[in-house]
């Protein structure tokens, strides 16, 4: 059985093809001419092919030798990229990191934090994937994502979770609504009130309703929105009421709409958290990232 060639042998082959001379190729690789020649002969024997035709004064690379040298160049470049990638990721919070975010948190939390994050960790390249909780957790478990920014309660199995902050709700109504002049409402005030909420798959839908058990609103089954901005627009048009998370309101979601926002007492807030696999080699980094996000949001 033939053995795989060493990277050093491939380097010698490329150097010989480029220099067309054993002496210059050996000098380029910082080895003796005899060492280079011996290594290439071993490569030929191992592969069962002729790479070069040798005479006392010249060397002629065979057509197959040229073709194999082209492949060797790609292998050497890929190997260098492999090593460079590892080196880039060996620093704390550096290199590539893939972060999943749910759409009711990410667009409102990350824009205010990213400039600080880039300044603090300039070597970190964060790739963001937005989606619904179920899909993001599946991507995390399969290894496609390094971590997910989500809202609890949600079944996350044995994933590590790092709590960031609690996110409450406000009732959004038109100025003409009977509750518009109230500063506070609670679950009893909203009992059987039909709420426009996000479509199925968005965990905020269930969080918002379960926050008021045993009393509270019910979902308007005739309408399901795809985004929080759609919900605000529908409320502003007088088509109903909704519950909005504080993180989105703080980020300016309702600034351009004529709606009244009312504090909701006794509603259980959702917990915004960063989760990752227990087996992740970047666990310590992710805990540090969670601490940074938590402090940046609170600050």
TrEMBL record:
Output the InterPro entries linked to this UniProt entry: LysR_HTH_N (IPR000847), LysR_subst-bd (IPR005119), WH-like_DNA-bd_sf (IPR036388), WH_DNA-bd_sf (IPR036390)
- Residue span, HTH lysR-type domain: 5-62
The portions of this protein that span the membrane are none
State the signal peptide span.
none
Coiled coil ranges: none
Q: What top-level branch of life does the organism fall under?
A: Bacteria
User: Does this UniProt record's set of keywords contain Ribonucleoprotein?
Assistant: no
Answer whether the UniProt record assigns the keyword Transcription regulation to this protein.
yes
Q: Which protein family is it in?
A: Belongs to the LysR transcriptional regulatory family.
What is the name listed in the Swiss-Prot or TrEMBL entry for this protein?
Answer: LysR family transcriptional regulator, hydrogen peroxide-inducible genes activator
What lineage is this protein's organism placed in? Bacteria, Pseudomonadati, Pseudomonadota, Alphaproteobacteria, Hyphomicrobiales
